[in-house]
Structures are given as C-alpha cells and as structure tokens.
Amino acid sequence: FDQNSLLFYVNGKRVEDQNVDPRTTLATYLRENLKLTGTKIGCNEGGCGACTIMVSDLDPATDEIRHYSVNACLTPVCSVFGKAVITVEGIGSVAKKRLHPIQERLSVAHGSQCGYCTPGFVMAMYALLRNKPKPNMEDVDEAIQGNLCRCTGYRPILEAFYTFTENAENGTLKNSMNGNSCPMGEKCCKMNGNSKCNDTDRKEATKLSSFENVREYDETQELIFPAELKLN
Ligand code: FES
Ligand code: FES
C-alpha cells in the first residue's frame, strides 16, 4: 500500500484518497465524501447505533477474515485503512437491486417507521449473519443491543430478525416455553404471572406478521473480501 494515501474498500469498490483530514469520522466520510447517506448519524457519540456499518479485515493472529459491526461515528476514517466496509447501500435496495432478506423481513414485520434507525439495525443483523448464518435468539438480542429505535419499538424488529434463527420454524417463532411461542422468552409477561396476557393476547403477539413468502437467506451470495486486501 502507498502509506501516504488512505486506501480501503466500500461495498466492493476501491477508495483511495490522498487528502483526508485525519479528524474525519467514517460516518462523515461515507455521507459527505462518498454520498452514501444510508448510514445515519443520530447521536454522533456511539449511543444509538444509527451509524452501524460492517468492517471486514484479516485477523493479524490467524490471517482469517473477520467481520464485525462498528459505530461509524466513533471510527476515524483513517482507521479503516486496508479494510473492507459494507454499508446498507451495499447489501440491497429497492431502486438498484433487490432488498436483502434482512430488509425484506423488517419491512414485512413493519419494523421501520421513520426509518432513521433502520440501516443501523439492518447492518448489525447483517454482521451477525456474516459470522453466524444460523444464529439463535440470544445472538440476535446481543447483536442489536447497541441499536436504539424511538418509534417502532423493538417488538416487530425482533420478530423479523428472529425468523433467521434456529429457533424459527415455518416463519413463526418457537421457543422453549412449554411449546408456546412468545418472542419475549423468559421475560414473557405470562411467565411472570400477568393475568392480562390471556391466550388470545398471546396468539396475537406471536402472529403479527406472516413470513411465508419471504426469500431464504443465502450466505453464498454476499460480497466477498477484496483480493487486494489479502495480499498486503
Ligand atoms: Fe449514534 Fe453513531 S450516530 S452511535
Ligand atoms: Fe424511527 Fe426506529 S423507526 S427510530
């Protein structure tokens, strides 16, 4: 690599820049220099997850490719030198290509209202699936714990994302609660003696959306790590 210029990849495209202000964050660089405004800036201090993107690099200890979600607002753009970044524009869209299955299921579940948090949730889930194509529900909870939503609430977002888990069966949720399926798991109000949660409520809570016609997730179709970055 030319050590005097910033080189990294964004959504499979090479970016080289010799005039980078080292104070620039990755979120600002993506939005202002590359015009990739799908990555949102909410708090700009690492608290909301709206700016979540995925970074891939080679683990220096093992030389294995690793993928992780990152708050782009906390990341100096120079720190992604030699790495590959994937933003929400790189995984799917209505205009240019199909929605990614994560986006499609979020839409089917009505998991987006103002949409400001949505790219961050999508990318946090995307990073999880790149590492573990069949996660469990706890993996999903952990993956999105840094993402806040102020309007939809988490119920439909979780319903959409749990369909990717090994606990999901035929598009509905299934967990270990005596054969019942409540996405709140152990925290289900029924488990805690709330008499207002009767069987009718529970049926509504488990079947708000149907995922029967959504596409399967196929991890072999994802962007590969750029060959150039493996060589240096
Ligand atoms: Fe809120 Fe980055 S903008 S975490
Ligand atoms: Fe508005 Fe999540 S959809 S903040």
UniProtKB/TrEMBL annotation:
Residues 4-91 form the 2Fe-2S ferredoxin-type domain. The chain holds residues 12 to 243 of 621 of the full protein. This is Xanthine dehydrogenase.
